[in-house]
């Protein structure tokens, strides 16, 4: 992907689901949830391009997507990763505009752009204010017909992809398993067995001529699908498409043949792989299944839902909850154009063996073959899928994505609309039939994934893989385009009148017990969101109790006075709702999202969780073990280690310095009494805010709040709060040495500001310029100009007290010092020079555009309202946001950075293979502290 990493497993996370006031039995599961049709209109241009459009005047935006029927399966032999590499190059120059123009046309006007590559498709998508639509149609046509690929851009983007590979595959403890070894083992002949991101060797083998031939072969009108959705005039849009797209000629030649038939397995297969820094062994069982268009995809999808969706699923309940042999257990169906598979995996709990996991997964799969699933399970899975289909259609971008995937895999737009009815028609007999047909021991692949050591070296990626397409099969280069002189370029079309986003009114009232209730209604899909927020963050933990706030929130879904954790998970999933709880530095929240027709039951569930948690000892023990396994994975990954260490460096032993998830020392020491007291003291209606957003009116919200929370009484008052941020500390340079790390994580950290600081808005805009977007200064310097990182970012990290400002990047180990110097230099520049007028204008557009995007979803809208309430800000700030952003000038940004974020107070944390950079770092920073990762101690400020 262009700007965000798509990885199979990033790190273990605590999974949360919710419960109820009263039982919701299978026979009372919701009925009548209707998913509206996508509503796209199709036409085909004379050059063969298919065009789908859908008008929506409820938004001020428009999305433009182009889906090309070319993916990693089409990578030529010895050029794996080619389609993905080319995705990056498509964001560069054409004959009519220079490099990075797509970012100027999208991010700089308040929109966004991105792309992704998978087995069968490379898709490009932009969402922009509606008045910029013609420019995007022009730009998409330009890069289809006249892309410029020069040597310097080619080499730079190839370096970026290598860093993406290192970050997602090498630095991630389980990256090799899911990105390389699973597809490489499950498929025997299909080109799907190659990784989408490729390999360092194949990327290095690519030439600029290969790239140009690849574009000439696959980037042609009859191989593209244009999708436009949003607020536009249909006749005007049709004219623009005729002017820019329809005139592109289509090549008079066939594309390379690529239709490999994957053979049936001839017997069971096994494989064992080794990788560095694997904290817990993992196992995968996989079976070849069917292509996307096959009718058996639907029952297999429902089977997968029963197998692993949510805490009531068979795999979670058996392996994680009951047997407690796995830290995480799940499954994933992969259906592509030519073939597919279903993979079930488990990351084992500490002390458990792969063999235990293999036996447990096989037992769960055998149950599908041996007997029909229950009607309750079947109903639950269907309700979840229908509700998720609603959520997947909430925005114009969502709806275009649903259509695009259906078209790529079937070339039939009606598939997406028919799918819900087909899911509802699946029977228990259908599921048993496909389990017996595909998920047999004779057809299965078993993978063990273990930590490498002296006896078992790291398993190397297999790169010598045959493919149906060769470099010789690609089309000739054809015309080589260069950027025209400015006077000769086609002018960008003018923009039309803008469509301003509108902020809805917020109803604000309190119940008699002091609970504040905020209601913001949103027209559109029948979805409603609720957020219940408390002053109950990690800053409120007693010394030595790190993790209590997070543990309390996690346990809310694990049993009430009348319900067990499995019952809670089953009830909520039968409703098709999404409910969970979480905690941060200052606050904890319980959240819910559900179809409108079951929202009253969802609120009742939410109230029972908050008011009547059991905090059963056995549930605490389970949660504690899962959290410890989660921490072990995090501590094997450079990025999370750097993040946790940075907090200790800035805050020392103050509460903000302690890891919110706890540590390997504090988690085992948390008792039931600790959790119960924290809940009693901190979960009180007088300190809470309940936010409703979506398809709900104020009167209905008032009635729901009163019924669920009106008789909730306030326990005794809380004692004095701890000083969360402590006193400012001297800056430090810290290296955490992780031998064999796939990358180095570089983080610059400073003590920041609170959300209510007067300079919040200038600092927010400055941060967006520094590292808050793809077009930021850090990304320009580190990724785009030098190819040193897949992506850089910075965060203002505001809190109630002094926040944690960070600027970070992951890079190859030998470049860690160069990257740290670049980050420090860019922070300095913001403190010493004023941003230009054009930089200010574009950053303002980015902030207001993101604000507008949040208004389009019920969760996003509710989040905006809730965040104002958390910091005791007036609701009028919602309507005032755009004006405050647009009032910021360059002097305010420079002054705010100089006062609050001077670089002489900055600390530097680097986590990686120190042998590759320590000498260069020590030459610049003789006072550097080096801490072996085996000696890292996050319980105190010294870190060891």
Task: Tell me what you see in this structure.
Strands 1-2-6-3-5-4 form a 6-stranded mixed sheet, with helices on both faces. With 944 residues, the chain is α+β, with helices and mostly antiparallel strands. The chain is globular, with a radius of gyration of 27 Å. The longest helix is centred in the N-terminal third of the chain and has 20 residues, at 151-170. The relative contact order is 0.12. It folds into 4 domains: 41-172 and 184-253, Metalloenzyme, LuxS/M16 peptidase-like (Cytochrome Bc1 Complex, Chain A, domain 1); 269-451, 2-Layer Sandwich (Cytochrome Bc1 Complex, Chain A, domain 1); 503-709, Metalloenzyme, LuxS/M16 peptidase-like (Cytochrome Bc1 Complex, Chain A, domain 1); 733-857 and 878-935, Metalloenzyme, LuxS/M16 peptidase-like (Cytochrome Bc1 Complex, Chain A, domain 1, 2-Layer Sandwich), CATH 3.30.830.10.
SSE blueprint and pairings:
Elements lengths: L40 E4 L5 E6 L5 E8 L13 H8 L11 H5 L6 E6 L4 E8 L3 H13 L5 H20 L4 H12 L13 H6 L2 H11 L5 E7 L3 H11 L24 E7 L6 E7 L8 H12 L5 H9 L3 E10 L4 E9 L5 H17 L4 H17 L4 H15 L3 H11 L3 H11 L6 E7 L55 E4 L5 E6 L5 E8 L13 H8 L9 H10 L3 E6 L4 E8 L3 H13 L5 H18 L3 H14 L14 H4 L2 H11 L6 E6 L3 H12 L23 E5 L6 E8 L8 H12 L5 H8 L7 E4 L8 E8 L4 H17 L4 H18 L3 H13 L5 H11 L3 H11 L6 E6 L5 H7 L4 E4 L12
Parallel strand pairs: 2-6, 7-11, 13-17, 18-22, 18-23
Antiparallel strand pairs: 1-2, 3-5, 3-6, 4-5, 8-10, 8-11, 9-10, 12-13, 14-16, 14-17, 15-16, 19-21, 19-22, 20-21
């Amino acid at each position: 992907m262009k700007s965000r990493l798509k990885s199979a497993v990033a790190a273990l996370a605590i999974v949360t689901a919710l419960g109820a006031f009263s039982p919701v039995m299978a026979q009372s599961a919701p009925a009548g949830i209707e998913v509206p049709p996508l509503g796209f209109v199709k036409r085909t241009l004379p050059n063969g391009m298919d065009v789908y459009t859908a008008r929506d005047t409820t938004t001020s935006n428009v999305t433009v997507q182009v889906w090309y029927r070319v993916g990693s399966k089409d990578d030529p032999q010895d050029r794996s990763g080619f389609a993905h590499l080319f995705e990056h190059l498509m964001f560069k120059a054409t004959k009519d505009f220079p490099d990075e123009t797509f970012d100027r046309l999208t991010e700089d006007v308040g929109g966004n752009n991105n792309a992704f590559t998978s087995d069968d498709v490379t898709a490009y998508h932009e969402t922009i204010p509606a008045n910029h639509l013609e420019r995007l149609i022009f730009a998409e046509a330009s890069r289809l017909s006249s892309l410029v690929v020069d040597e310097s851009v080619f080499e730079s983007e190839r370096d970026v992809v290598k860093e993406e590979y290192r970050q997602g595959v090498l630095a991630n403890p389980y990256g090799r398993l899911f990105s390389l070894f699973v597809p490489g083992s499950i498929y025997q002949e299909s080109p799907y067995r190659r990784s989408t991101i490729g390999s360092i060797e194949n990327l290095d083998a690519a030439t600029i001529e290969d790239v140009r031939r690849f574009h000439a072969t696959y980037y042609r009108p009859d191989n593209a699908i244009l999708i436009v959705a949003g607020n536009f005039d249909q006749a005007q849009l049709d004219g623009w498409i005729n002017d820019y797209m329809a005139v592109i000629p289509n090549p008079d030649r066939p594309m390379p043949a690529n239709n490999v038939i994957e053979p049936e397995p001839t017997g069971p297969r096994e494989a064992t792989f080794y990788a560095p820094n694997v904290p817990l062994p993992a196992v995968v069982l996989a079976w070849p299944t069917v292509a996307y268009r096959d009718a058996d995809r639907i029952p297999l999808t429902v089977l997968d839902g029963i197998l692993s969706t949510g805490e009531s699923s068979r795999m979670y309940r058996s392996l994680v909850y009951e047997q407690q042999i796995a830290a995480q257990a799940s499954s994933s169906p992969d259906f592509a154009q030519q073939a597919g598979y279903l993979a079930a995996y488990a990351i084992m709990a500490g002390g458990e063996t792969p063999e235990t996991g293999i036996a447990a997964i096989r037992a769960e799969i055998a149950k599908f073959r041996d007997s029909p699933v229950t009607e309750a399970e079947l109903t639950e899975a269907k309700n979840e899928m229908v509700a998720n289909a609603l959520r997947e259609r909430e925005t114009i971008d969502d709806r275009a994505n649903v259509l695009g995937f259906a078209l790529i895999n079937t070339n039939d737009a009606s598939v997406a609309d028919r799918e819900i009815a087909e899911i509802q028609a699946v029977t228990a007999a259908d599921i048993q039939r496909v389990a017996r047909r595909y998920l047999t021991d004779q057809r299965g692949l078993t993978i063990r994934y273990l930590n490498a050591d002296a006896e078992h070296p790291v398993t190397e990626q297999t790169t010598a893989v045959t493919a149906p397409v060769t470099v010789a099969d690609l089309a000739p280069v054809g015309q080589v385009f260069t950027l025209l002189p400015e006077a000769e370029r086609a002018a960008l079309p003018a923009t039309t009148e803008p469509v301003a986003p509108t902020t809805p009114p917020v109803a604000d009232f309190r119940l008699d017990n002091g609970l504040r209730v905020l209601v913001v209604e949103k027209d559109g899909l029948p979805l409603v969101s609720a957020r219940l927020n408390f002053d109950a963050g990690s800053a409120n933990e007693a010394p030595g109790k790190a993790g209590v706030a997070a543990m309390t929130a996690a346990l809310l879904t694990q049993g009430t006075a009348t319900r067990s954790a499995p019952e809670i998970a089953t009830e909520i999933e039968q409703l098709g709702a999404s409910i969970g709880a979480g905690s941060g530095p200052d606050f904890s929240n319980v959240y819910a999202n559900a179809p409108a027709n079951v929202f009253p039951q969802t609120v009742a569930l939410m109230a029972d969780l908050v008011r009547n948690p059991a905090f059963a000892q056995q549930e605490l023990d389970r949660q504690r073990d899962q959290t410890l396994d989660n921490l072990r994975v995090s501590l094997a990954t450079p990025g999370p280690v750097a993040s946790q260490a940075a907090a200790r460096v800035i805050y020392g032993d103050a509460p903000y310095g302690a890891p919110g998830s706890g540590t390997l020392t504090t988690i085992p020491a948390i008792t039931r009494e600790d959790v119960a007291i924290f809940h009693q003291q901190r979960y009180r209606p007088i300190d809470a805010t309940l936010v409703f957003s979506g398809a709900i009116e104020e009167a209905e919200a008032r009635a729901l709040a009163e019924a669920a929370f009106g008789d909730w009484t306030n326990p005794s008052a809380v004692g004095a709060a701890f000083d969360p941020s402590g006193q400012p500390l001297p800056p430090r340079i810290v290296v955490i040495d992780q031998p064999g790390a796939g990358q180095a994580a570089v983080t610059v950290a400073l003590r920041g500001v609170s959300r209510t600081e007067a300079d919040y808005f200038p600092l927010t805009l400055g941060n967006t310029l520094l590292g808050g977007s793809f077009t930021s200064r850090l990304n320009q310097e580190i990724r785009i100009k030098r190819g040193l990182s897949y992506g850089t970012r910075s965060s203002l990290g505001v809190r109630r007290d002094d926040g944690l400002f960070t600027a970070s990047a992951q890079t190859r180990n030998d470049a860690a010092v160069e990257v740290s110097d670049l980050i420090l230099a860019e922070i300095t520049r913001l403190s010493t020079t004023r941003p230009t007028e054009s930089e200010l204008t574009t950053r303002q557009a980015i902030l207001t555009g993101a604000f507008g995007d949040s208004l389009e979803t019920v969760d996003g809208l509710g989040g905006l309202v809730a965040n104002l309430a958390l910091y005791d800000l007036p609701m009028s700030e919602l309507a005032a946001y755009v004006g405050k952003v647009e009032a910021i000038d360059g002097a305010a940004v420079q002054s705010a950075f100089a006062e609050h974020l001077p670089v002489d107070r900055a600390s530097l944390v680097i986590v990686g293979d120190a042998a590759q950079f320590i000498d260069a770092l020590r030459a610049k920073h003789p006072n550097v502290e080096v801490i072996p990762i085996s000696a890292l101690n996050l319980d105190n400020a010294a870190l060891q």
